[in-house]
């Protein structure tokens, strides 16, 4: 379904990496240039205020997509529009700054996303200093104002103002992720990309962080793009979900509907593969095979070698993304509910 | 928001006092655990202090011709028969008190050592940062230059630069600029080590998430390099600098010994050794011996400190 | 069947640091019956990996076993000289570590690694060992094993490598396999395959499994019984379905409530306030008391593992008698 009030729109987004051997070796061995298509023609939109979950396994291209959406990586094709502005095409500095201020990112590894040599207060204050956000007047924010803002942010994420002069290594993984969140919301962004924000955390800490993220979303009116491989986390956090496989979107849908009635065979099998904590004793068919190598994808539909429902056309023709699913069998074969 | 409050780490609060932090400090503990290192540390501090306070503790000023008595030249040390109690370690051929000359020489040697290390580090770290961060042709060019320079021994390069400088300068200004020329030659011959280490560390750090976070808010590359990357690559630089200090002092001594370093009117330890060498076989052994012992003690102590520092920082150098 | 296969009693593991000795495992006791799968679950820092390392004798200095006993089939193995322990490792206890990349020797062919292991523990000839190696590769699901047996580890994908590691662990037909986070580094779809493979193979070859993981879902699928660890101690132990449906210890209750499920979209995840204490700051008495919503005065004293039927919980809430019953299972 088309988003009514999109804050982010992605059109035909793609990214290709050149992974050829060095020129000399290629010459000697007679090898052709090799490319890796990490993301291949993605189209989706994210509505203001929602949490869009993106799931997929390794090689799906989620991290590459995340980096393109926030402007850290240039797309090879297509465009990313943040409220109508394409960052990659805009050269005008004030516009670029205005757009950058509205996007932020939370990274997976709480031990690597904070500069170990900087004090926590400075880490959080950096976006504030760079963007000099709405302070009413035209002047720079003074030191006291910045310190006050840092204290406010620390309290907001459940830490103390006394934590500002400390270094990151004095904190646990969960606390560092809170600091990373404080930094992300410091300059009043509208849209935050969360790249596996809790994958490195223990279950009980994960619960704290996810609850915090939800609370902040309500309080500050944030929009999230949540990237994860953990389907249960997506179930809890996301309003809509997109499923990626080998750089392509295979299905999009509202969370409840997608989990209750997955339409793409890969989605169905992904849901089936998650260990069953509720032990409903449901019959499971584990997926065979492994995610293929993105340098050398299978022809036609990339999932066909592992798909139990693959037919002849799946091996030769790539299914187009239509009606929120990319499968030759969608519509023709009406799937029943796969998981209780 | 107490429900989402993060757990308090009460243990870390109590470690905030200075004494507490010193007691906890792994580096300090590692330093104190080795007697050799402590001894090296003490020797280094004594020599540094001696050099620093030379103008006040030296019995005479060896560079003031007015106080040099040629009649007192070549006097043996005071504790040997024939020695003059005024001159603890004897005098040299110019009648200079050897003790004072050594103190001032130490001062000059250390000054050149520090300055050339600083210069080498400045050039090396800057080039290393650029090569590691930018990659591509900048990296290739810098590294090829480094490779070429590494094929020559550092001392030869210093000699070459020294000679070129001497050739270019007017004879009159050679003496005054000797200090600067030495610093330049030695500094330029040692930058490669810094560049390589910093380049390697930079290549690792530039892909870390905190650098991505900085790029995300639109910081310029230069700003990211200096405020984010640099503090994280400095660790190994300190180790190299310490070991390099000893090397720089030896190099200066060698150049002075060869006669292309500091002039005899402003002798460093190396110059003194050169002068003394001429008198060695005629029996005036002290002119060579005491400066050599001082030089050896300094270099050994600094080297040992460098070794300790490298091992102590090692588990952290991940 | 006589007695348990593995019996751990009051295991204490200490780390010597500059500031004194830190107790990492404090009186851990459990049994594993022959052929049973015991899950050991806990968050990071709880001591589950340490328990596995202690059992198999791979504790590195400055850690050391400071007390308690470990018995394999009745014989003590915690105080054996390294040479004897090496014989037991591999022959009677197999290991599976988390990262297949580092568990396999990158310079040795897969077939050779398998063959060497088989030869080290079985009195058969080289050709027979190689045939067995190929048979094992087939059993763990490597397609066309005769062709792949001479490949190097880097030529296999992550899931395939982990299958090889499982083959390596089982090829000497051990009585017990210790698996430390065997599926954590793998993709979701591959995890399911590996879990099912591990379960089937160990059942087929009659090996017991000590499955160490932080993932409750994996435990639910694979284990017969589960021990929940917290701050170096066992908080609760019991049959897996009962424990998950009806957790007794407040920590287990909190943990289960904090896990997001696929089934329903929760309003909010239950969270346990605070965090697991660091080794240097474990409180006196019950380690969980500061975070426990049901703590009371008795909790100032450390509770033993109290028997409730054939389950156990280290919590004073279950103390029914004036003298607390101390169970050994």
Could you characterize what this model shows?
The complex is a heterotrimer of chains A (340), B (318) and C (329). Chain A has 340 residues and is of the alpha/beta class. Chain A has helices at residues 23-29, 62-69, 93-102, 120-131, 143-156, 173-185, 203-220, 231-237, 255-260, 265-273, 312-316; strands spanning 6-18, 35-47, 51-55, 77-82, 85-86, 103-106, 191-195, 223-228, 240-245, 248-254. In chain A, 32% of the residues lie in helices and 20% in strands. In chain A, strands 6-7-8-3-9-10 form a 6-stranded mixed sheet, with helices on both faces. In chain A, strands 2-1-4-5 form a 4-stranded antiparallel sheet, with helices on one face. In chain A, helix 7 (203-220) links the parallel strand 7 and strand 8. The relative contact order of chain A is 0.14. Chain B has a single domain, classed as MetI-like (MetI-like fold, Orthogonal Bundle), CATH 1.10.3720. Chain B is built from 14 helices and no strands. In chain B, helix 13 packs antiparallel against helix 14 (286-313). Chain C folds into 2 domains: 6-92 and 177-284, 3-Layer(aba) Sandwich (Rossmann fold), CATH 3.40.50.300; 100-173, no CATH class. In chain C, the strands form 2 sheets. Chain C has an 8-stranded mixed sheet with strand order 6-7-8-3-9-10-12-11, with helices on both faces. Chain C is globular, with a radius of gyration of 21 Å. The chains are: A alpha/beta (340), B mainly alpha (318), C alpha/beta (329). Chains in contact: A-B, A-C, B-C.
How is this structure best summarized?
The complex is a heterotrimer of chains A (340), B (318) and C (329). Chain A has eleven helices and ten strands.
Radius of gyration of chain C: 21 Å
Q: Give the oligomeric state of the chains in this entry, treating copies of one chain as homo and distinct chains as hetero.
A: heterotrimer
- What helical percentage do the residues of chain A reach? 25-40%
Average of per-residue pLDDT values of chain C: 88
Q: What is the count of distinct domains of chain C?
A: 2
Q: Which term fits the overall shape of chain A?
A: globular
> What spatial order of strands do you see in the largest sheet of chain C?
6-7-8-3-9-10-12-11
* Biggest sheet descriptor of chain C: 8 strands, mixed
- State the CATH architecture of chain A: 3-Layer(aba) Sandwich
The CATH homologous superfamily of the largest domain in chain C is called P-loop containing nucleotide triphosphate hydrolases
Cα-to-Cα separation, first versus last residue of chain C? 17 Å
Helicity of chain C, as a percent range: 25-40%
Strand order of the largest sheet of chain A: 6-7-8-3-9-10
**What's the Cα radius of gyration of chain A?**
22 Å
Listing every helix as H and every strand as E from the N terminus to the C terminus, the arrangement of chain C reads: EEEHEEHEHHHHHEHEHEEHHEE
CATH C-level class of the largest domain in chain C is: Alpha Beta
Taken together, the total number of domains of chain A comes to 1
């Amino acid at each position: 379904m088309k988003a009514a009030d999109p804050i982010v729109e992605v059109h035909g987004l793609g990214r290709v990496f050149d992974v050829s051997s060095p020129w000399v070796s290629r010459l000697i061995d007679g090898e052709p240039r090799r490319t890796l298509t990490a993301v291949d023609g993605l189209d989706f939109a994210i509505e203001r205020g929602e949490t869009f979950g993106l799931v997929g396994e390794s090689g799906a291209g989620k991290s590459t997509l995340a980096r393109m959406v926030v402007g850290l990586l240039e797309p090879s094709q297509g465009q990313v529009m943040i409220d109508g502005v394409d960052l990659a095409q805009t050269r005008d500095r004030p516009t670029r700054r205005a757009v950058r201020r509205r996007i932020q990112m939370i990274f997976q590894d709480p031990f690597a996303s904070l500069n170990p040599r900087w004090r926590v207060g400075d880490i959080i204050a950096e976006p504030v200093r760079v963007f000099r956000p709405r302070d009413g007047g035209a002047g720079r924010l003074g030191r006291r104002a910045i310190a006050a803002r840092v204290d406010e942010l620390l309290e907001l994420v459940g830490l103390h103002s006394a934590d500002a002069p400390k270094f990151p290594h004095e904190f646990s993984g969960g606390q560092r992720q809170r600091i990373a969140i404080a930094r992300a919301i410091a300059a009043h962004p509208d849209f935050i990309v969360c790249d596996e924000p809790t994958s490195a955390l223990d279950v009980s800490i994960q619960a704290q962080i996810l609850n915090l993220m939800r609370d902040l979303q309500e309080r500050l009116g944030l929009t999230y793009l949540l990237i994860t491989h953990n389907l249960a986390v997506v179930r809890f956090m996301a309003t809509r979900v997109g499923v990626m496989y080998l750089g392509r979107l295979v299905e999009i849908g509202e969370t409840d509907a997608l989990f209750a009635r997955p339409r793409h065979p890969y989605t169905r099998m992904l849901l089936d593969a998650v260990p069953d904590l509720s032990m409903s004793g449901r019959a499971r068919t584990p997926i065979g095979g492994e995610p293929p190598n993105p340098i050398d994808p299978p022809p036609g539909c990339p999932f066909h070698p592992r798909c139990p429902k693959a037919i002849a056309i799946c091996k030769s023709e790539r299914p187009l993304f239509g009606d929120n699913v990319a499968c030759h069998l969608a519509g023709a074969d009406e799937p029943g509910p796969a998981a209780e | 928001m107490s429900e989402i409050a993060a757990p308090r780490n009460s243990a870390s609060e109590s470690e905030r006092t200075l004494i507490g932090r010193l007691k906890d400090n792994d580096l300090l503990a590692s330093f104190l655990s080795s007697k050799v290192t402590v001894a090296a540390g003490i020797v280094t501090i004594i020599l540094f202090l001696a050099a620093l306070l030379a103008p006040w503790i030296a019995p005479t000023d060896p560079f003031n011709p007015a106080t040099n008595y040629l009649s007192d030249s070549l006097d043996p040390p005071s504790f040997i028969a024939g020695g003059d109690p005024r001159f603890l370690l004897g005098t040299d051929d110019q009648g200079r008190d050897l003790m004072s000359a050594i103190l001032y020489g130490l001062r000059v040697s250390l000054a050149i050592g520090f300055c050339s290390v600083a210069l080498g580090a400045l050039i090396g770290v800057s080039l290393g940062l650029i090569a590691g961060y930018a990659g591509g042709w900048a990296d290739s060019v810098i590294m090829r230059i480094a490779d070429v320079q590494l094929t020559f021994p550092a001392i030869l390069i210093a000699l070459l630069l020294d000679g070129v400088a001497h050739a270019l300068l007017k004879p009159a200004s050679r003496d005054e600029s000797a200090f600067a020329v030495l610093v330049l030659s030695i500094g330029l011959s040692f930058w490669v080590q810094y560049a390589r280490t910093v380049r390697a560390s930079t290549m690792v750090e530039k892909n870390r998430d905190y650098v991505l976070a900085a790029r995300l808010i639109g910081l310029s590359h230069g700003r990211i390099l200096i405020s984010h990357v640099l503090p994280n690559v400095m660790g190994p630089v300190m180790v190299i600098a310490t070991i390099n200090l000893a090397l720089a002092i030896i190099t200066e001594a060698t150049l002075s010994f060869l006669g292309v370093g500091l002039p005899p009117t402003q002798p460093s330890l190396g110059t003194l050794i050169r002068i003394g060498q001429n008198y060695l076989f005629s029996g005036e052994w002290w002119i060579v011996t005491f400066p050599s012992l001082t030089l050896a003690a300094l270099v050994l102590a600094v080297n040992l400190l460098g070794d300790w520092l490298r091992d102590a920082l090692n588990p952290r150098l991940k | 069947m006589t007695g348990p296969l593995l019996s751990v009693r009051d295991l204490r593991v200490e780390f010597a640091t500059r500031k004194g000795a830190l107790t990492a495992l404090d009186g851990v006791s459990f049994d594993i019956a022959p052929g049973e799968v015991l899950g050991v679950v806990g968050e990071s820092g709880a001591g589950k990996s340490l328990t596995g390392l202690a059992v198999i004798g791979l504790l590195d200095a400055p850690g050391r076993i400071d007390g308690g006993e470990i018995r394999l089939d009745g014989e003590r193995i915690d105080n054996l000289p390294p040479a004897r322990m090496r014989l037991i490792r591999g022959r009677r206890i197999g290991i599976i570590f988390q990262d297949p990349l580092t568990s396999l020797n990158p310079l040795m062919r897969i077939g050779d690694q398998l063959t060497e292991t088989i030869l080290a523990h079985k009195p058969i000839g080289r050709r027979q060992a190689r045939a067995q190696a190929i048979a094992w590769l087939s059993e763990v699901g490597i397609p066309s094993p005769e062709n792949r047996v001479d490949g190097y580890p880097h030529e296999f994908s992550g899931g395939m490598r982990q299958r090889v590691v499982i083959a390596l662990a089982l090829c000497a037909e051990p009585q017990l396999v210790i698996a430390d986070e065997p599926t954590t580094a793998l993709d979701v779809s591959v995890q399911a395959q590996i879990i099912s493979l591990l379960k089937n193979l160990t059942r087929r070859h009659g090996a017991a499994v000590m499955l160490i993981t932080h993932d409750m879902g994996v435990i639910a699928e694979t284990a017969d019984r589960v021990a929940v660890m917290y701050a170096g101690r066992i908080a609760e132990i019991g049959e897996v379905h009962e424990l998950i449906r009806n957790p007794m210890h407040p920590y287990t209750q909190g943990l289960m409530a904090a896990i997001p499920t696929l089934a329903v979209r929760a309003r909010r995840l239950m969270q346990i306030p605070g965090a697991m204490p660091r080794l240097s700051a474990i409180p006196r008495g019950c380690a969980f008391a500061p975070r426990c919503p049901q703590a009371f005065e008795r909790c100032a004293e450390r509770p033993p593992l109290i028997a409730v039927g054939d389950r156990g919980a280290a919590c004073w809430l279950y103390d029914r008698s004036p003298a607390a019953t101390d169970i050994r299972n």
